[in-house]
Each structure stands twice: as C-alpha cells, then as structure tokens.
Amino acid sequence: MLRKIHRRFGPPPLLRRPATYATFVHIILEQQVSVESAKATFDRLTDACRNDPSPRAVSDLGDDRLRELGFSRQKARYALALADACLVGEFEIAALSRLDDDTVRSQIVAQLGLGNWSADVFLMMALQRPDILPLGDLALVKGIKEIDQTDYASSQQIVDRAESWRPLRSIATRMVWQWYVHQRGRDIF
C-alpha cells in the first residue's frame, strides 16, 4: 500500500512545526474543524499578536478578542488556560523534547482541552518523533479504510494493521494523509 502511494506522490511532506505554545494553539484550533478553517483563524491570531502568538500575547488578548478572531468559546478557554499554565511554569514546552513519548503524551493530555490526538500531532510535527500513530485522526482512519478497502471495526484493528510500519508509523501516517487529501482534491501540503 505505502509503496503505491510513494510511487504516485513521492515522499510525504515533513509537516514540521516549531515546538512552541503557538503550535499548541494551532493544534487546538484544528480540533474537529477543517485544516483550512483552523489555519485562517490561526493566521488572524498571528496578525493580532504581531507575528508572535506567545502565551503572554494570547493572554493579553483575552477571551473576547479571541472570540472576535474566530475562536469558539471552548477553544478560547483552552488557549488561555494553556497560556496561564505556561506563564506560571506548570507546563514547560521546551522541556518536552527531552522526554520520552509516553511522558510527553501524559504531560500534554494533563492540559485542559488537549487529548491524545493533540499529543500525537505535537509529537509528530513539533518533536518529529518517528513512530506515532494518531488513532484519533479522522483522515488517518478513513484513509486506511479506503486504501485497504476494509472496514476496520476497532482502533485495535488499525493498530494491528499498522504494526508492519513500525518504527516509522509517523512517516506512514503522513503518506496516508497525502493520499487522503489528494483523493479529495485538496492540497494542504
């Protein structure tokens, strides 16, 4: 399956993001919406923060301004809670790169509004960890089902299916994403 995708599309895009608070906000904005919609809101935030959506800058904007920029009430709450955790030193993003995947995941999911999908995206894109399989990602799950023409009934079946991709499941995931968006006539990479 992956060989065919590689032949057709070439290597998957790296999709690298900095390991910063801004990346977490971008991930929060991507939860349950299109990548394009999240990017538009993130771009407005970046402009409002003079190209530096830091914890202090976002905190200074406050809830009302974030809502004006396109944040939902819930996502504004998450971004502001994360800013507060960073500002008081409860969540140290710079330290995450020195930790193993499981410890990074547990620290991320301890933050309001960040779950396993958010942790997986951060591990893959910001920390460039090679063996992440984001089971909560709809494009990955749908993509595998469509590519294999199989209706996997459980997450465990997808984990089993992806076992042959170890220790490079992050690369395989990006290849599935690459195929998935192409099938839909989109080009987000």
Would you mind describing this structure in some detail?
The protein has 189 residues and is mostly helical. It folds into 2 domains: 2-13 and 133-183, no CATH class; 21-126, Hypothetical protein, domain 2 (Endonuclease III, domain 1). Helix content is 61%, strand content 0%. Helix 2 (21-30) packs across helix 7 (116-126) and helix 3 crosses helix 4. The chain is globular and about 50 Å long. The two termini are 20 Å apart.
List keywords for this structure.
2 domains; mainly alpha
- The geometry reads as globular
Distance between the termini: 20 Å
Count helical runs: 10
| Rg over C-alpha atoms, rounded to the nearest angstrom | 17 Å
Structural class: mainly alpha
Looking at CATH, which topology of the largest domain would you report?
Endonuclease III, domain 1
Query: What count of domains describes the coordinates?
Result: 2
Arithmetic mean pLDDT: 95
The unreliable regions are none
Q: What's the main sheet like?
A: none
- Please state roughly what percent of the residues sit in beta strands, choosing from under 5%, 5-15%, 15-25%, 25-35%, 35-45% or over 45%: under 5%
The first-level CATH class name of the largest domain: Mainly Alpha
